[in-house]
Specification:
This protein is about 40% helix and about 25% strand. The protein is of the alpha+beta class and about 375 residues long. The radius of gyration is 20 Å and the shape is globular. The N and C termini lie far apart (about 40 Å).
């Protein structure tokens, strides 16, 4: 397997998150693949304006647009809160480029944000002595999420922010196919004390073995918490009507004036709300099964050259994590950012409610990963 979708589909799925740092789980991307990167410019200002839901919607839109452009074929991707990263085979490169370009235009025109986008050849990353390796973590029997190691994804992100490998926006008015993208659930208040956004990266010239040990220590601390500190309630996120995200979902629809699209979303979400509220079975759709899958499929922890987690924390767990990370930072092993908030939020990508592999991206509701990244940058600047 050197190229094509057979590469990613051939990587075995691992189930225990505690095994995350085992290098044997990761397979090098084929040399002729490319890395796609996107992020929102000045997400800090969007957070200050209480528009972080728009920022999350933009990041998830990248994944939805590329997935739909590829006809639903599997490819490795990661959601980063205010952006996303993914990898594509050469025969999918131009489809991914067009989807990225259209998404950037949509983000500017419909969400009033600016998105940087880039496509970086894996060969360019390896020329810098770095790599991109991919593993597949299965949080449930329903689906798997990609994990990235090797330093290449982080380098590609930095290169994009320097203006390298940039992809130009599509012409004005270009609309990506965002079918299945929604944000109908309400925010999820912390039930154990607080929602903690965690971002941990290796320090410059850190010993890889020491970094692995620090990450494994953090994961083991989290695993002791009930349900692994998952921020999604066991019964699923709260659902109300009209949903908070009705305007954002209306923007994802194609064709017609926004008011007409909004009316259509309101009608459809009312129908969906009544089905869920009264536990009505419709065709092959069973509300309780879907709720369980939403919980199981939630993407609240991941690895993309660094550990990202959104945790429903007790104060004791927060202190234990802070103490372990602070000790590792003093030893020159990690850089990290933590952000405390009172709730988490969910953005969903469900092309079909009848399939079990619907994807649910989790972030903090009051700044999330972007605020944790700001804290990490401050730590890096202080150490420079």
């Amino acid at each position: 397997m050197t190229s094509g979708e057979s590469f990613y589909g051939g990587i075995p799925v691992f189930r225990g998150f505690t095994s995350l740092m085992d290098p044997a789980l990761y397979s090098p991307l084929p040399e002729d693949w490319s890395i796609g990167i996107a992020d929102i410019v000045d997400s800090t200002r969007a957070i200050a304006a209480q528009r972080y839901k728009a920022v999350n919607m933009a990041g998830a839109a990248v994944i939805a647009a590329v997935t739909n452009a590829l006809g639903g074929r599997e490819f490795p991707f990661v959601f980063g809160g205010d952006g996303a990263g993914f990898a594509v085979a050469p025969h999918d490169l131009e489809l991914a480029r067009a989807a990225l370009a259209a998404t950037a235009t949509w983000v500017r025109e419909d969400l009033d944000r600016r998105m940087r986008i880039a496509l970086v050849p894996v060969s360019a990353i390896r020329a810098r002595g770095l790599d991109v390796r991919v593993a597949r973590f299965g949080p449930s029997p329903n689906l798997s999420y990609a994990m990235f190691s090797g330093g290449g994804l982080a380098w590609a992100d930095a290169a994009m922010k320097r203006g390298e490998f940039a992809v130009a926006e599509a012409p004005a008015g270009t609309q990506p196919d965002l079918s299945g993208l929604s944000c109908r659930f309400e925010v999820m208040p912390a039930s154990r004390g607080l929602i903690l956004s965690v971002l941990v990266m290796p320090a410059r010239d850190a010993d890889p073995r020491a970094f692995r040990k620090a990450i494994e220590d953090v994961i083991h601390l989290v695993e002791r918490s009930p349900d692994g500190a998952r921020p999604v309630p066991p019964q699923g996120p709260p659902l109300k009507w009209p949903p908070q995200g009705v305007d954002y979902e209306a923007c994802t629809r194609r064709g017609g004036p926004l008011l007409v699209r909004r009316a259509g979303v309101l009608a459809y979400t009312l129908f969906a709300y009544l089905i869920m509220r009264f536990d009505l079975k419709v065709g092959g759709f069973v509300p309780n099964v879907y709720r369980r899958q939403v919980v199981e499929n939630s993407d609240f922890r991941k690895y993309d050259d660094g550990l990202r987690m959104i945790l429903d924390c007790t104060p004791e767990l927060e202190r234990a994590l802070s103490d372990r990370l602070a000790a590792a930072a003093r030893a020159g092993i990690v850089r990290y950012g933590l952000h405390r908030q009172d709730a988490a939020m969910m953005t969903c990508f469900a092309p079909s409610a009848l399939r079990s592999d619907h994807v649910h991206f989790i972030d903090g509701a009051r700044g999330g990963y972007a605020s944790a990244a700001t804290a990490l940058k401050a730590m890096t600047a202080a150490a420079a």
